[in-house]
Design brief:
CATH class: Alpha Beta
CATH architecture: Alpha-Beta Complex
CATH topology: hypothetical protein yedk fold
Number of helices: 3
Number of domains: 1
Radius of gyration: 17 Å
Number of strands: 13
CATH superfamily: SOS response associated peptidase-like
Order of helices and strands: EEEEEHEEEEEEEHHE
Length: 221
């Protein structure tokens, strides 16, 4: 699952030409909002486009709007398979949130690279049935995999995070299904760290550094 993430820095070659209006830091990116997404243009060069975080293909105007797609089934699901074949993208982030059950409540945790570096989620995009209220004509979903290693203690799913060397292959239209499956196999996030944060992140209107400030984790019982 990936339902919130952060993007507070833009110092990466793929984001060198990001439009100024998209280079706005966010500490609580929520579904249903526009976000910068990187894909290949017709010339095969990476470009940054604002897309709506929510995936509903134009041929399914009455279907649900989803924010995640399971890596295990994305190639076969009718809703996703065309986008998986032809419309793959990468979503820049520098952290994301997961919610760990604690008794009858859920404690949010913030997860990031130990060095605070940017990284990229594997994504797919589609043309929306109609423009979103923020004016976006395309929407995206973040792919998820089974959680590996320590993160499984927080949640049983994790976003599919691509290594730097795999970004181009993921976006390239001629990458075969076998290679794509390998890219989504789900590596353990050994270079990442996590800490509990306030439940203020639960509300999308809260978007400031306090969303990622460490707090004492709630105890079960």
């Amino acid at each position: 699952m990936c339902g919130r993430y952060t993007l507070t820095r833009f110092d990466h070659p793929l984001l060198e030409r990001i439009p100024a209006q998209q280079a706005q830091p966010t500490w609580n990116r929520a579904p249903g909002t526009p976000a910068p997404v990187v894909g290949l243009n017709e010339s095969g060069q990476p470009g940054v486009v604002a897309m709506h975080w929510g995936f509903r293909p134009h041929f399914m105007p009455d279907g649900p709007e989803l924010i995640n797609a399971r890596a295990e089934t994305v190639a076969e699901k009718p809703m996703f398979r065309a986008a998986f074949r032809r419309h793959r993208c990468v979503v820049p982030a520098d952290g994301f949130f997961e919610w760990k059950p604690v008794g009858e409540r859920k404690q949010p945790w913030y997860i990031r690279h130990r060095d605070g570096d940017l990284f990229f989620f594997a994504g797919i995009w589609t043309r929306l049935p109609e423009a979103s209220r923020d004016g976006c004509t395309h929407g995206y979903a973040i792919l998820t995999t089974a959680a590996r290693g320590w993160i499984n203690d927080l949640h049983h799913r994790q976003p599919a995070i691509l290594s730097e060397s795999d970004l181009e292959a993921w976006m390239a239209p001629d990458t075969g299904p076998g290679r794509l499956a390998l890219l989504l196999s789900g590596a353990e996030l050994t270079d990442f760290e996590a800490w509990p944060v306030s439940t203020r992140v639960n509300r999308p209107e809260h978007d400031d550094p306090d969303c990622i400030a460490p707090v004492e984790a709630e105890k079960g019982g």
